[in-house]
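Example complex used in Figure S2.
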Amino acid sequence: MASVEVDQFLAQPPERVWQALTDPAQLARWLMPNDFKPAIGHTFTFRTEPVPQHGFDGVVHCEVLALEPPRLMRFSWRSGILDTVVSWSLAPEGAGTRLLIRHDGFDDTDPGQRMVMGILGGGWRGHLIRQLGALLREERG
Amino acid sequence: MPGPDVFDAIASPVRRALLDVLADGARSVHDLAAPFDMSRPAVSQHLRVLRDAGLVTEERVGRERHYRLDARPLRVVADWTAHYERFWQRHARLLRDLLEEDG
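Predicted assembly (244 residues):
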């Protein structure tokens, strides 16, 4: 499963960083406008400019999956054909905080994405061919 | 420059299945339609969408048209990780700046 990891040192302690990550107004200032609430199971969206060439309508659909102040937040991230998960982990480092951003699930959650990875990865053989007839009957009906 | 057509093209399970078949080699419309309960016009319509997205090319072989997969436009879809790496790096810096401003 492909993932992205980005880490960033911040001079403030984890408690202060946690605020910036979980207060909707502060979150909007460094990330995107949102209707986030710090509650597991809360569904929310980020809204930004659409990127038509990436098939992106400008809305990211999210759900809070884990919340452990001031250490970890994890939420689902669905936009366009993507169905992924973002984790923000905070660890004290000196007087500040090391923030680790991990974005997981780029290549095996979405059928379109799986197909693309399969074709580009060269491991593509006609295993879907058997399903074609059924799919066509579904679409027609 | 690949357009939104690539995403529309692969959004359909039928067209993904057609691409799957074409990934094994070029096929005629007849070959694509024959094993399945699918009319030639229906296949042609899906192939047109794939062709407009740049995912298949068409060539004339005798009296038939053959279709061949061109996977290059798919790279824009596979490029998500690079896109999001830049995205998160940019926003992590914005977070750092925000915290420095506000204290």
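Strands of chain B lie at 27-28, 56-61, 64-69. The radius of gyration of chain B is 20 Å.
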